[in-house]
């Protein structure tokens, strides 16, 4: 039996052996609690025939736990200094593969075709680098990859925004973008003490179950997201004022905006934060021909 990577003693020994120094700019906060890692993996509900994709393996703490449960793990790591460490720590796990790449620049779809051929249950599981949490999640969702879901550690504040319901202060265009593609659930709140170094913010684990089809059907996804972003540009403004000031030529098209609001059954004096995702879909469809 190998000793788990994610214990304070083993992690310290590995870091010292390689003279590794953390790069804050890469969001390097490593997990040193095996129970938390096992819990994260539990929430991914993997089986021996599952595949797992990881972003940022660090020294392999989560990768190891994934490799013990899944058929295959592929992890993207941007920091070249971690590659020799990972070769050593993951040596006992031939089903784990590390790709040296910025995940934001990687062709994940092609990787899935090559590495996960014959595997039809794939989860993305990661302790994300906090400086790029949202771009990573959005990239994965927008590329429409064949995944069952995503289980990730992130800033608690972002987890709250992702899972927020209308008429709360956390609800915004991020809640809508993610709920359009997935059903989010915050499954764990995680204390700072389980990381080295400790992050400045509180953390949470969120599970995003990917919907078979998006929550609402819209004429144009691109325009729907443009309308939602415009509607939250200034939270204290009414939906009418945000749309007239934020959409291209919105001021000249005020009549069209008023008429679309009426078609969608939305009072112009409401604020964006009070609109459900279904209402945003009706509004964006009613406005679409005018823009
Ligand atoms: N999985 C490890 C753990 O839980 O202990 C490390 C997690 S640490 C929060 C984030 C990791 O992501 C670091 O190893 C960092 O180098 C890597 N990383 C940062 N930006 C990345 C990017 N754009 N693409 C791939 N990996 C990245």
From TrEMBL:
Catalytic activity: adenosine(1518)/adenosine(1519) in 16S rRNA + 4 S-adenosyl-L-methionine = N(6)-dimethyladenosine(1518)/N(6)-dimethyladenosine(1519) in 16S rRNA + 4 S-adenosyl-L-homocysteine + 4 H(+)
Keywords, ordered alphabetically: Cytoplasm, Methyltransferase, RNA-binding, rRNA processing, S-adenosyl-L-methionine, Transferase
Subcellular location(s) of the protein: Cytoplasm
Keyword Protein biosynthesis: no
SMART domains per record: rADc
Keyword RNA-binding: yes
Organism domain of life: Bacteria
Domain Ribosomal RNA adenine methylase transferase N-terminal: 36-212
GO molecular-function term, one example from the UniProt record: 16S rRNA (adenine(1518)-N(6)/adenine(1519)-N(6))-dimethyltransferase activity
InterPro entries noted in UniProt: KsgA/Erm, rRNA_Ade_diMease-like_C, rRNA_Ade_Mease_Trfase_CS, rRNA_Ade_methylase_Trfase_N, rRNA_adenine_dimethylase, SAM-dependent_MTases_sf
Residues given in the record as S-adenosyl-L-methionine binding sites: 29, 31, 56, 77, 102, 127
Enzyme category, top tier: transferase
EC number: 2.1.1.182
GO cellular component, one term: cytosol
Similarity comment text for this entry: Belongs to the class I-like SAM-binding methyltransferase superfamily. rRNA adenine N(6)-methyltransferase family. RsmA subfamily.
Function: Specifically dimethylates two adjacent adenosines (A1518 and A1519) in the loop of a conserved hairpin near the 3'-end of 16S rRNA in the 30S particle. May play a critical role in biogenesis of 30S subunits.
This protein's name: Ribosomal RNA small subunit methyltransferase A
Source species of the chain: Niallia taxi
């Amino acid at each position: 039996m190998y000793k788990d990577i994610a214990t304070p003693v083993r992690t310290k020994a590995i870091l010292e052996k390689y003279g590794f120094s953390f790069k804050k700019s890469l969001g390097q906060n490593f997990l040193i609690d095996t129970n938390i890692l096992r819990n994260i993996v539990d929430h991914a509900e993997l089986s021996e025939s599952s595949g797992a994709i990881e972003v940022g393996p660090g020294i392999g703490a989560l990768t190891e736990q994934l490799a013990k449960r899944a058929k295959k793990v592929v992890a993207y790591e941007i920091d070249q200094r971690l590659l020799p460490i990972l070769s050593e720590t993951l040596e006992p796990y031939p089903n784990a593969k590390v790709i040296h790449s910025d995940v934001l620049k990687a062709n994940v779809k092609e990787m899935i075709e090559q590495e996960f051929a014959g595997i039809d249950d794939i989860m993305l599981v990661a302790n994300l680098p906090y400086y790029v949490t949202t771009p990573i999640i959005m990239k994965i969702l927008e590329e429409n990859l064949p995944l069952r879901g995503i289980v990730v550690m992130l800033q608690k504040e972002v987890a709250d925004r992702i899972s927020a319901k209308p008429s709360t202060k956390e609800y915004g265009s991020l809640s809508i973008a993610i709920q359009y593609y997935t059903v989010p659930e915050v499954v764990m709140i995680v204390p700072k003490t389980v990381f080295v170094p400790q992050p400045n913010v509180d953390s949470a684990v969120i599970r995003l179950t990917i919907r078979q089809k998006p929550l609402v059907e819209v004429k144009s996804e691109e325009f729907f997201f443009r309308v939602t972003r415009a509607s939250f540009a200034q939270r204290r403004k009414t939906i009418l004022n945000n749309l007239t000031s934020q959409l291209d030529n919105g001021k000249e098209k005020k009549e069209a905006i008023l008429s679309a609001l009426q078609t969608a059954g939305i009072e112009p004096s409401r604020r964006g934060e009070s609109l459900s995702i279904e209402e945003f879909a009706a509004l964006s469809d009613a406005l679409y021909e005018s823009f």
